[in-house]
Amino acid sequence: MYLFPHPPLSGKNITYITNAEVRDAILNLTLTALAPKFPLFQTSDYELWFQINRVVLLASFSPLVLVVIPANLTCDSYDAILKGMESALAVLPTGVGVELKSSIDKLRQSPPEGCTPPRPVGFCKETIVDEVRLCGGVHSGGPGSQPPSSAQLCDLAISNYACSPVASSLSSDALVTLLTCKVPSSVNSSAETWKLFLESRGSSGGCSVSTLGGHQPESRVLDAIGEVKVNNFSAAQLTDVSFITDWFQGRLRPFLPAVSRDFLSCLSSKNFSCDTYQVVVQALSRQASLMEVGQQRVVFTEFVNPFLSRDDLPDPACLANTTSSADWLEKNFGNFSVYATLEDLQRLNENFSSFASLALLSPSQVAELTLSSGALNNTHQIDAVFDRLENGNAFKNVEEFLTALTASPEIPDITPAVRDVMMNRTFGIIELKLPGFGAHDWEVWFTEKLIPVLPSFTAGMLLKVTADINCTNYHVIVEGMGDVFDKMTFTRRQEMTRVLVEHLKQFAVRYNSPDCRKDIANDAEWLDINLGLFSTVANYSDLKELNISGLAALESLSPDQKAELLLDPSTGALENVTVVKEVLSSILKAPDEEQLEKFFETFVEVSKEENITYITNAEVRDAILNLTLTALAPKFPLFQTSDYELWFQINLVVLLASFSPSVLVVIPANLTCDSYGAILKGMESALAVLPTGVGVELKSSIDKLRQSPPEGCTPPRPVGFCKETIVDEVRLCVEVSTVVDPGASLLPRLSCATSPSLIMPALRLHPPCPLTPSSHC
Question: Over the range 274-297, which residues count as b (16 or more CB within 10 Å of their CB) and which as e?
Fold first, then answer.
């Protein structure tokens, strides 16, 4: 059905059918015929019918007609319908598109599932003037038939002039006076009143009011001018640079600081050429300093962005006649480019070169660029970013930049080299401001804004910020650095810890004062708030110097600090089985399974330094060995030979004196020969250095282990062991029935003895002479 041969219509420049009855009839009959076919329509069909064929009829489209549109539209088809309806609305005269606007609103409120309505085309609101009602309420005593003197102009409300024929004879100077009259806010005139007043002035309504000076009129005055004058500009006038310049940079200039959302939205629907659009942008930019920030943002959201987003113009986004991305940005956005997102700019101009336009980007846009351009992996680009931030108010710029950066759903991944540059340049900017920081500033900067770059905070920087700081703000710094502790290198952690510890030592009196210890109940809490995670990096000796009780702060200590605590003679821990169990239990219940290995690494190291070959207190030794083996037992089946070497030849050596045969049950039966050999070697090495009588249980364990090697394995040659024979001299000598001649040699007889128990006492009494070849039994 092709009822609409559009070339002839377009040739006649018919934008809509003016006769409402005729328009309604054509639209209704057409929709009735098309309705059964809509479910089969492709997006291209909806584009044909809603953007081309029926455009001149859509002024008659009412919300009731929406029932013919299928509910299961695709998103593209839904967009095609909305675009056609909004494009039709944009060219309709004021007052004609009310029903169509309602239909659009309703359609936008109920998009198909999974669809998002496209950006709306600007809409021109129409103020309906009810002259009878307005003027019926005006009291007598109007201006009469002649305009009052300039001194008396402000004695009457604008409604008195709007309802009087004298309005048409008011001079431009009189109009300026009326606009600057100071009246109570309670009697401010409505847009309806101003519209009536301007309509009453007739053609003189366009007189220049550029002499308003510094006075800022109400937005409703400009709204009324927009409806009476701007909305009636012809197509030729909208593309006439001289005409638009005269109006927006001349006649309307004083009103622009009060520009409203409605005026801007309507303005975005006008068919300006790119040249005249840029004239309007320039006019608004020149008044931007007189606007509130929120109002400046509205200029972008309601005028600049919608106009540049239109694809029904000869040069969408006004890309032609621009020499560069920076030139395009300056001409088409003016002072309002800072309110666009980088995504907006790239959507409007797919060739937009962000780094080429860096000088024109706001700090927030620079942050977007930093996140999306790869600058976080490029030191040259990040230097360019900070060159831009240092231009102007560097502190304000870097603050806005970091705020936008940290607003990202995830803290960006920054390469260390780039992060170092960012931290160094940021600190160079904020360093001079630090003395003026209040508690809130420290909180915001060190727990929010600096977080992405704080892992690159250096010991030198920390030394500067803590040089003259109270304990409250110091605690905030420790908290912030603790948040990025895991992202710091181990060397960086050590450097920071040294600065913090020395600071606490230097100002020990302050940090132990009642004010700084407020709400701190014990050493563990003191350590947590003053060193945080850095307490785990501090030397055990430093903690002692800070008067920290290791036992009281046990949960805050690192595994190596706990090892030093156990072996510290001043704590007496190695003589207290309760303390030992508490320390070992704190390690074994930690979620980090590597804590046990870290503990023993230091335990072994300190044991060697203190020349400890075995733990002398049997109860303590038993406790440490049993707790350790209980923790290791489930892992033994997965152990490699190197693991058994680590634990039985290094970590457990000073504890193996407590290893009894009953403990052998924890060792897997299916050991490899190498692992079996590693265990035996460790146990025998430990036994070799034990004092007489201490290693009985360990020797029994070794013997039992040797007697039952894994299948296919041969026990290794034992490490040298000196067996001790116990001498019972009384028992032995009672059995002797004859007196032995002291001068006679016992050697032949002793050499034939079968028992060492008989030989030993005799050897003590009569050392043997050397054996000779003739010696015999």
Answer: bbbbbbbbbbbbbbbeebeeebbe
d(CA 513, CA 510): 5
Rounded to whole angstroms, the maximal C-alpha distance in the chain is 167
575 and 662 inside one domain: yes
Measure the CA dihedral 570/576/581/586, to 10°. Answer: -20
Mean pLDDT of 151-167: 75
Find the angle CA(616)-CA(622)-CA(624) to the nearest 5 degrees. Answer: 95
Instruction: Please tell me what DSSP assigns to residue 390.
Output: T
CA angle 592-410-481, nearest 5°?
55
CA pair distance 738, 652, nearest whole angstrom: 54
User: Per-residue pLDDT tens for 137-147?
Assistant: 665 556 666 67
Cα radius of gyration (the chain):
47
- Local structure of residue 449 (DSSP, 8 states): I
Same domain, 571 and 683: yes
* 713 found inside a domain: no
At 12, the amino acid letter reads K
Whether 528 and 586 map to the same domain: the answer is no
- CA dist 307 and 279 (Å) reads 13
Which region among 259-273, 431-445, 720-734 has the lowest average model confidence (pLDDT)?
720-734
Query: pLDDT digits over 403-452, tens only?
Result: 999 987 776 789 999 999 999 999 999 999 999 999 999 999 999 999 99
Cα distance between residue 655 and residue 587, in whole Å = 17
Count CB-CB contacts under 10 A for residue 668: 14
Question: In terms of domains, do 324 and 367 share one?
Answer: no
Same domain, 462 and 452: no
> Residue 451 corresponds to which tokens in the numbers above?
């977080």
Q: Which residue has the tokens 């079996």?
A: 676
- Predicted confidence (pLDDT) per residue in 753-775, tens digit: 444 444 444 444 445 444 444 44
pLDDT tens digit sequence for 548-593: 887 878 888 899 999 999 999 988 989 999 999 999 999 998 888 8
